[in-house]
UniProtKB/TrEMBL annotation:
Highest taxon of source: Eukaryota
Organism: Tegillarca granosa (Malaysian cockle)
Residue intervals passing through the bilayer: none
InterPro entries in the cross-refs: CYP450_20A1-like, Cyt_P450, Cyt_P450_E_grp-I, Cyt_P450_sf
Family (UniProt): Belongs to the cytochrome P450 family.
UniProt-recorded name of the protein: Cytochrome P450
Amino acid sequence: MLIDTIFETATKLIWCLYFLAKHQDLQDKVYEEIKTQLGNDEVDFDNIQNLRYTRQVLQETLRCAVVGPSTARVQESEGELDGFKIPKDTPVIHALGVSFQDERYWKLPKK
């Protein structure tokens, strides 16, 4: 279990570094925020809360790279989707990669 968590974290960070390398302007903005908020201090639980833009970059990395391609849950009540009835207690799998790239929900889904 710990190995999986380490792998997922490493994958997320590699994608983040890739995206930052492709977008120098965003890389500069993250760097400036870190220098402004932390100076020469080490990152700790208290000051990491001040890195708002950096957190947003990490969140967008998850959306764009789709590190976790799907999620699942059990339908808690009867529902309907595009005219199809979904009975209570039905396992439902949600393809995150599809919805995270949908232009109806994201202005620039590929960016």
